[in-house]
Here is the input.
Amino acid sequence: MTAESDVATVIEEANELYKENKFQEVYDKLIQHKSETSNCELQWKLARAARDLSQLDSTSKDRKLELVSEGLKFAENAVAANDADFSAHKWKGILLSDLSSSEGYKKQIANAYIIRDEFVKAAELNPNDALCQFLMGEWCLKVADMTWIQRQAAKALFGTPPTSSYDEALKYFLKAEDVNSGFYVGTYVSLGKTYLKMKNKEDAKKWLTKAVNYKSENEKDDKLIEEAKGLMKGL
Here is the structure.
């Protein structure tokens, strides 16, 4: 068996484990081949695996940061290996966003444009990937939520702060749902939050109800469902 076919087999095995939400096993299997930096699929799936582990409650704060930093390097390897791969750009944007969140407000603003460009590129390369549309919506929602003080600080630091609106965020979330309805409970929660920001309680309640009734598949789903329940209490 050649090294290339060996890696292909490992990726197939990791795919099956991923379907079962066995994130540690996925990581352990793929990390053995991390030196295969020219294999785009291996690298972005390593990035995803590192990120999945970083999201677990059982992972320590220090380890979370290590995994995010490591995951970003894998995603960058994936982009370098194949700039036309939408998943490589998608996971680079996700990991960079995670890392920026731990590095302070100035770093978040500095990386905001890079993160947006990665998500835009991913969405352009594959407009039928619902997660790409969702991620664009999340970026827009986060930017639209910036306070006046934050905007002034960003303007002083960088001249032109990133801009967006709740309408723009809504457009991407609805597109994600249109592309693949029910693929992720986070879309329901974000739609609910966006409508609440727009003072539309009726539509917010509709989407948050969908989130509350969503069949959870993992720990992350559980957290989002609880968040939806909390938001529903205010309606």
Notes: Residues 184-235 form one domain.
